Every structure is written in C-alpha cells, then in structure tokens.
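Q: How would the structure tokens look for this protein?
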Amino acid sequence: MELTWYGHSTWHVEVGETSLLIDPFFDNPFTETDPEELDPDHVLLTHGHADHVADVDRFRGAHFVGTPELAGWLGDQHGIEGATGMNLGGTVELDDAFVTMVRADHSNGIDTDYGTSAGMPAGYVISDTKPTQVADEESVTFYHAGDTSLHTEMRDVVAPYLEPDAVAVPVGDHFTMGPWQAAVAVDWLDADVAFPMHYDTFPPIEVDVEDFEREVDAVGSTADVHVLEGDESFDLTEGY
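A: Here is the predicted structure in token form.
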C-alpha cells in the first residue's frame, strides 16, 4: 500500500491495482501537483467543508463515496452521478480495497446554498482485506481520521477491531485536535506509523509540527512519526 500526502487532508492511497483519493483540496501550500495529473478510481469524502471538497469537479471520471447527503449534493450541485452513499459503521468493497466509514467528531455543513448539513462527518479505514473479528497479520490498513477531536471510539473500536498499521491525524488545533490530543489518539490507536495532517494551511491552524512528535514521545507511544513533505509518498508495505 502506497500513501501520498498532497497537503492538508488530501491523500492518495494505492491498494493493489486500485487508487483512492481522499478529500481533494489542492489549493494548499504543501502541494505543487496539478490535480489534472491524477486519475483515481475512487474519491472518498470525509465531510462537506470547502477545504475537503473544493476540487471534486476535477475528478468527474471517478466513483465517489460519502454520506448519503454528500452523495446527493454531488449529483445536484456538480452533476456527478453514481456516487455511493454510505454511513458510519459500513464497509464497501472498492475493487482491491475495503473501505470502512468510522466516526469523526466535527461539524459538517456544506458551504453552498444547497443546504446546511452533509450528515455526519467521518473518517475512513482502508484495508486490502475485509475486516473481521479474526486478526489478519498479513493485512495492511490505513486510517484517515478526518477532521475530528479525540474520541474513545479510536481506542475501543478502530484500534482493536480494524487494527490500523498507519494513521493520519489532524494536528492543527482550533478546528480539530491539536498536537497533544492527536498524540493521545496515536497512542490509543496502537499503530506502527503516524502522520500529521490538517495543519499550516491557514493562520488558525499554524502549529509547530515538532510539538506533535514530542507529544507522541511523551505519551509513550511506540509509533514512528513521519512528517511528510507535500507530494511525498510512503510505502506502507516496506518494514511494517
């Protein structure tokens, strides 16, 4: 599984022959990628805020996944048909990937005249195997926490049952977790690798990202923190 961070909360995930793009927003200071260069099979949307859905029009050839409210908005506002609406706790099979929608604690308004609610905000757990209660040591799993505060479902559900190998957590504070809460999340999730995201895009979420590294160390987590440069990739199958 190869992960690429395009800044903010925008990630590209390769699972076998399947490519997934999460929260397309390329107007951020970390990326120099032209979205027209990308051709994902599927686009996953965590919620309806503009800094997570701004570039949906660039990927009309892809299949979209989000809450039923977001799926309806894609059709009505952008003419994107065939989006899959799903909800918290559900798992969908997308070619070589299994995608489970999990809870995120955040607001979820759509920044248009379409309406005020996009349903519940979400995170996604992406794996190359179907999640079951039988642990699979061969599976590779990535958890994108979405925009969220710290919540105990990370510890009580995601960690023991979905078993992420790598996690991407927001650290920018103000609108989401800051470094210390994100570090607690990393500890609860018991993952091998942790990536910070959703920081330094706008003045309210400017942080010293090294604070996140220090907090992860202070909480006693054994996760390896990788602060990626924009457009940088990480091969999760190598050494984890």
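The first strand starts at residue 2 and ends at 5.

The chain has one domain: 2-233.

Upvote if useful.
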